[in-house]
Amino acid sequence: xxxxxxxxxxxxxxxxxxxxxxxxxxxxxxxxxxxxxxxxxxxxxxxxxxxxxxxxxxxxxxxxxxxxxxxxxxxxxxxxxxxxxxxxxxxxxxxxxxxxxxxxxxxxxxxxxxxxxxxxxxxxxxxxxxxxxxxxxxxxxxxxxxxxxxxxxxxxxxxxxxxxxxxxxxxxxxxxxxxxxxxxxxxxxxxxxxxxxxxxxxxxxxxxxxxxxxxxxxxxxxxxxxxxxxxxxxxxxxxxxxxxxxxxxxxxxxxxxxxxxxxxxxxxxxxxxxxxxxxxxxxxxxxxxxxxxxxxxxxxxxxxxxxxxxxxxxxxxxxxxxxxxxxxxxxxxxxxxxxxxxxxxxxxxxxxxxxxxxxxxxxxxxxxxxxxxxxxxxxxxxxxxxxxxxxxxxxxxxxxxxxxxxxxxxxxxxxxxxxxxxxxxxxxxxxxxxxxxxxxxxxxxxxxxxxxxxxxxxxxxxxxxxxxxxxxxxxxxxxxxxxxxxxxxxxxxxxxxxxxxxxxxxxxxxxxxxxxxxxxxxxxxxxxxxxxxxxxxxxxxxxxxxxxxxxxxxxxxxxxxxxxxxxxxxxxxxxxxxxxxxxxxxxxxxxxxxxxxxxxxxxxxxxxxxxxxxxxxxxxxxxxxxxxxxxxxxxxxxxxxxxxxxxxxxxxxxxxxxxxxxxxxxxxxxxxxxxxxxxxxxxxxxxxxxxxxxxxxxxxxxxxxxxxxxxxxxxxxxxxxxxxxxxxxxxxxxxxxxxxxxxxxxxxxxxxxxxxxxxxxxxxxxxxxxxxxxxxxxxxxxxxxxxxxxxxxxxxxxxxxxxxxxxxxxxxxxxxxxxxxxxxxxxxxxxxxxxxxxxxxxxxxxxxxxxxxxxxxxxxxxxxxxxxx
Length: 869
Fold this sequence. Notes:
Blueprint: E1 2-8, H1 20-24, E2 28-30, H2 33-42, E3 52-54, H3 55-62, H4 69-91, H5 95-107, H6 109-121, H7 136-150, H8 164-174, E4 192-196, H9 203-213, E5 217-223, H10 229-238, E6 246-247, H11 260-272, E7 285-292, H12 293-313, E8 325-329, H13 334-341, H14 355-366, E9 367-368, E10 373-374, H15 379-387, H16 399-410, H17 416-431, H18 447-468, H19 477-493, H20 501-517, H21 526-537, H22 543-546, E11 551-553, H23 557-563, E12 572-576, H24 580-583, H25 597-602, H26 609-620, H27 622-635, E13 640-649, E14 652-653, H28 658-661, E15 665-669, H29 674-679, H30 697-705, H31 707-716, H32 725-743, H33 751-765, H34 774-788, H35 799-811, H36 818-824, H37 830-833, H38 836-840
Parallel strand pairs: 1-5, 1-6, 2-3, 2-4, 4-5, 7-13, 7-15, 8-11, 8-12, 12-13
Antiparallel strand pairs: 9-10, 13-14
């Protein structure tokens, strides 16, 4: 094993290093495609541009079958079939303990798969039992690995040893486009290969690294500064298992004239080294605080949208190249949000990003494989299915829109039969007159729409049965399912000439996988299918596609910063998501469950022991790599700088990365001004409207309490409509109260008869209402009773009482609140409020939160949180 390690301080002057001749003619393996792009640009005049590749491509070249999705599916199937046996072997007859362990393994199935892959990658011996010192979940994992390995299914998928000839063949394929033949040795092969900037090793990469080192010289190259050892020693820690001599650069890099970015880098370096900081030349750091990842995504989207507009006007293909603000994040999860904003920017998308994916995934969530029928446990799965529009009856109408309007009437149904029965009942109701003046959402549907939904649900039932019936008893159930799915897709899309090109190409690749599975005799439980379907049909993101991410990861900082050197000095380099949660990764979280560092210390019987140590050392240094990457970006930043973090992620509160808190910082919460800036420019000319608005007292009440609600209900929808089950019940309470007040005007109140009267009225309305629980009916009657029993006598039905009844159905139980009454009865007449001048200028639509908000029927579309006045 021949491995040499060299360092550099100035990446722009690699060609001036003493070892340049040693590496200049050899292939370079980079950590990311972004780094490949950077070095191809920087050294285009002195190196063949084809002598570059990425660690990901290299692994894919050497282990194509092992990294194939088909192998992933087979591994899932093997885990699914063997997991119970392993638990019986390790635990014995304790049923409760077995059930608990099985639940944990199935819940973490994806991580268990990664752990099994890791044990295969390092070829742990199957001759030894797991160490007695291991916790029970790791003993189960190792026993599971032994059973799967001894099955022989994967013996030809992951080659045990790679010969010299095979290595040279693979490298020739990897770099076959190279025009420069001078770097080849006498045998026509490669005698040296360079790994540059590779800090994080996956198990399969660590294995390949050691395999290559057994047949050729490996040069490791990384950035290092000896004057800041605490930060840069992370590199030597990663490669310490190799026991290789490190040759440090003799070309020091002098930090440029300090701009705010370089100054911050210096201060952070001083903190990490435990040295005193001179604050005399330090300005306050500008830090943006985002409430959520969605807010950060909005901020990025506005910047990218601006670049897209400019790129379109100037015929520039890549808007990323002209963004005035470039983003690097300690967490790239924000790109998942941005994919929904700009799907065309992200070349590879998940199966679930497409309507067909959402549809099929939803089907797997509503099918009960034990009962062999559709069962509703989460209505969101139904919404996902309908949102795909795969089963729309009339393509001019969306079944999801119809469903959302009808939903409160069928909400308590739990199975397919109940849903169909409720829909048929609703048809009968809509065929007759009803009493709620269009204020309950489902009563505003048409019989034709309900019939369309019935047909759609029937199609859903038929397709689910076609896919999953008798799934558990079919020996080759995976093959059968994917064959049915392939037939369905072919039937659904084969004649669709308007498919977007990108989706059409995706379907071709997915159907190619369907063809491969025809030769696979694999089966598993329905839960296994649920876990694997997205992963199997995922067209994996590549380093090439990740290089087009709008927000780059820390792994991409070095390459992206270098490639932008010398460009516009006004460009802002934005280092984001800098919270302790994202930058500081505890060691427990870096290994896939249930693996831990302890496992590797006890279980040493691995064929690739050094590779395992290399993997472990790189995982342990992940936090320190994030720290290094941030420093690299700040030091070589050619432009301006911005720092930010996200305050809330996954219901957790995050703090700014702790070293930044030690420096003087100006933290500013971000407010999205895009809506207010657009609304402030918006005016509406009522004189150009062909219809005349005739406003009533109810419109006046809405305008006085909330102009946004007035806009939606009076100007756009022309009615108040309750679509939430709770609000419908509160509306019925107001309706009951009004009816009893009107029926009993002038009468004395008798508590004994009032309760029964209210219950009878509610019973009379039940044929038009959703199915109510007994407790809900009791609460509704009791609420109205408790309000009315305070009256000594029912007031006469005067004009004032009629106005109060109108206000009651608009504001529900908030009607009696003093603040609401003060707004409604401020004395301003309708003619002074609802004027063309007031209504035509959207800048006058003020929104202030009040007690009315908690029972407002337009809560779901209210812009209060988005508008900045």
